[in-house]
Amino acid sequence: MVNTRCVAGLAAWLLLGAVAAAHHSVAVNFDNSKTLNLSGRLKEVDIRNPHSRITIEVRQPDGTLKDWLVEWSDRNALVRRKVPFQLLRVGDTVTINASPSRSLDNLAYFRTAVLPDKSLLRDCGFAAFREAIANGETVECEPERAK
Amino acid sequence: MSRTRSVSVALIAVSAAAVLSAQGRRAELDGVWILAGTAKIDMTLTPAGEAARAKYNYLKDDPAMRCIPASITRVMHTPSPPIEVRQRAGEVEINYEFMDVHRRVPLTPGLTAKDAPYAVKEHPHLGRSVGRYDGDVLVIDTVGQHAGILDTLGAPGLVQSDQMRTEERFIPNGNRLTIIVTHYDPVNYAKPLVVTFNYQKLPGGEILPWDCTPDKANYDKFTPKPN
Questions:
Q1: Does the distance separating the beta carbons of B98 and A29 come in below 8 Å?
Q2: Is B18 within a domain?
Q3: Which of A19, A25, A129 sits opposite B156 (nearest CB)?
Q4: Which of B80, B84, B210, B221 is the best substitution to test chain A (most A C-beta atoms within 10 A)?
């Protein structure tokens, strides 16, 4: 079995805009043409179905704190794709790159996260997963280490 | 051996070989499958179907926000969660990871769908189903589906009436599986709605619990952005 790293998968995810990763259409709910960086302390990491939810406390320009909820793939998909979501730890300060909701405030969809050690956590995506399976390979979405 | 008898024996042998071949191909249906690409949807809505779709608001109308599978088509449109097919004596068991849908379809000769039990006892709105084989193709007929939302993902906002009849054809092809779903609903579709799903086998795959809870599946606590 060949172990496929997920760089190509990440590119595909970004290109395809994670068409339908959760139980609703990601493309309908989130504007994949836009991204924002949310830096702050992780308050809650709830890796679950039908979609994972990460709460991050972000300091605003006026000094106040505001909670953002970042949605992510369903738990079962993350487990199958061997995404090391355990690296998202409550209390850590991270920067999450996400696409904002089209219609709801303080809601976004996860793209990548810069962890405290500066490594980049991402999801290979379903397209890369199924392609690997078709080729008799496995996917392991290891974080991209800081250079 | 007379010529007539020889021909009869040969025909029986050919028929038996065909049956064995079909049974061998049917066995290919068993396994855990993931979508191999985006489903193809062929739809022509009636004015009523168009009007209903125009009113659709996923934040309010999507049954998945309440952890309810709108339809089997909707369930299959979710790309990541696999499905499992297990053919048994007298029934076929189809397990869909999305929303923990466990479906039992009797293969009882002579049984019609309207007289069959609910295929998913926890979700009677998914109707009553009966299965049969057409050569190596598994065919499932379903009636008694409740009026409501049919799809929220492949084609968001499609609806169905309680008159809808559905035929699914499970076509084996080695490590590939095609499921063609045809919905006959004259209220909402001017011609049958046909959705074609292509699957690939997931070696060593298993169906995991979904455990959806409505409080984590909806957006009720969020504030709409100002227009």
A1: no
A2: no
A3: A25
A4: B80
Interface membership of B58 toward A (CB under 8 Å): yes
CATH (domain of B136): 2.40.128.20
CB contact under 8 A, A107 and B219: yes
Length of chain A: 147
Residues 6+ apart with CB under 8 A from B51: none
B19 versus B180: which is more confidently predicted? B180
- Is B210 inside any structural domain? no
How far, in Å, CA of B148 to CA of B160, rounded? Answer: 5
pTM summary value: 0.88
Task: State chain B's mean pLDDT as an integer.
Answer: 92
Confidence at A144, pLDDT banded by 50, 70, 90: confident
Least confident of A62-66, A138-142, B112-116: A138-142
Q: What pLDDT shows up at residue A12?
A: 39
Structural domains in chain A plus CATH codes: 2-139 (2.40.50.140)
The secondary structure element, H or E, covering residue B194 is strand B189-201
Q: How many domains does chain B have?
A: 1
CA–CA gap between residue A26 and residue A130 (Å, rounded):
19
Query: β-strands A107-114, A65-72: how paired?
Result: parallel
Residues 43-82, chain A, touching B (beta carbon < 8 A): 46, 48-51, 53, 69, 73-74, 76-77, 79-80
Domain containing B54 equals 25-203
Q: What are phi and psi of B99, to 5 degrees?
A: 65, 20
CA-CA-CA-CA torsion sign (A49, A26, A121, A127): positive
Highest mean pLDDT among A120-124, B13-17, B177-181, B216-220: B177-181
| pLDDT(B221) > 80 | no
Question: Which residues on A lie below 8 Å from B64 (Cβ)?
Answer: 23-24, 50
Q: Quick check: is B64 in a domain?
A: yes
Chain B partners of A102 at a C-beta cutoff of 8 Å?
A: 225
pLDDT bin (cut points 50, 70, 90) of residue A8 is very low
